[in-house]
Amino acid sequence: MSYSELNGKMDQENRQSAARCPHFGTCGGCRTQDIPYHLQLEQKRSDLRELSAPVVPPDLLETLDVYPSPILWEYRNRMEFTFSSRDDRLVLGLHRRGKYWDLIDLEECHLCPSEFSRILWAVREFARDSGLPAYHKNRHDGFWRYLLIRGTCATRRFLADIMTAEENMQVIAGLAKHLTQSCPELRGLYWSYVPGVADVAAPLRSELVFGQPFITERFLGLEAPIYSRTFMQPNLTVAATIYETLADALNLSGQERVLDLYCGMGLIGGSLSDRVAEALGIEIDPVNVETAHEFIRRNGLGNVRVMQSDVASVQRPPFDLRGKDVIILDPPRAGLSRQVFAFLDACPPCRIACLSCNPKALADNLARFADAGRYRPFFLKAFDMFPHTPHVEVLALLEPV
Ligand SMILES: C[S@@+](CC[C@H](N)C(=O)[O-])C[C@H]1O[C@@H](n2cnc3c(N)ncnc32)[C@H](O)[C@@H]1O
Fold it and tell me: Can you give the pTM of this predicted structure?
């Protein structure tokens, strides 16, 4: 299907279902769902062109396109919901638009599989009946804090992680019983202890309450395990296209060595395994490293390794990098740190792939590469990982000058 045919189809589908969510307008989750999809893409493309103009050659700017997500709804494989209370009633949902302190008591969310809503309803019903209060952000008291749901959009398998500010295993056992009866689609439940005052779902401890520790998703012919807190790109259909585009644009010969910085569970290295000599990933989060080891083992990826380390502390490449070898950089939203640029400056020239969900940070990073004068971008493409939101994922490839 051509781009224009695809856009036409999406436009039609989208117009029929414009703003299909009852929370549209108040929820901070997706802000552009009333805009026809082809116009969302056009907007993203024009914003990107403006941002990238100072840092990429005019021919790349001219051909810069935004690959549309083949799935417009139910594309997210991960959602985090927050507990709060309003007028003494427990609320579970997403933040209200522009009001991080206020929550919408969520009925449905069309960005994730419909099973997410059913699991949310069951958890909220149990939490209300428990009589225990939601955690209060300012007073720092209360029990229920966050509900994290993971799911596989294709095979419809689900995991939940209930996060509380206090330990009360009797209540959690009651919740487990309630969920096994009301949500047969749930494959496992974690409980996580989050006593910290910061409003982030960063547990001190996690344990599996029932079921299996991870669900699996087919990804580019591989079996990818997903634990409750494994990092994974939120829209896997688009992620698969990004990784294939990356491999094709690098025109790999099979001899290349790949250093995959910020590798998560190693999906990029894994997807390149039969097109390169070896891939080494570096990742800071132990949950992702554990997932990566399971991923490598399950798929027999003999030439892929993942090490736990802070990228900022890497000073020398772990193997000789040269010529057509590749360094992949896929940092969190903030982009690349000073230490990473110092490391890159110390590496012999090779090829660099920058992937980013923050076009502004990417543009700043490309400006830094341009200032140093060692690399120039030869490929730039955007991918709509997040339909109905202003966000977009961008891939830039650089080669030595
Ligand atoms: C945007 S994700 C990319 C994951 C992976 N490339 C993928 O596509 O699935 C960024 C990853 O960097 C990791 N990370 C963040 N800061 C890091 C650091 N200082 N050193 C190593 N890894 C880091 C995060 O845990 C996360 O897994």
Answer: 0.92
